[in-house]
Amino acid sequence: IPDDWPGYRLDLFTFPEHYSEDLDCVYIPHGVIMDRTERLARNIMDDLGDHDIVVLCVLKGGYQFCADLVERIKVLSCNSSKSLLMRVDFIRLKSYLNDQSTQDLQIIGAESLSVLSGKAIVDTGLTMKTLLTHVRSFRPNMIRVAGLLVKRVPDGPGCLPDYVGFEIANRFVVGYALDYNEYFRDLHVSSFPTQHHTDTFMVLLRY
Question: Is 123 a catalytic residue?
Answer without folding.
Answer: yes
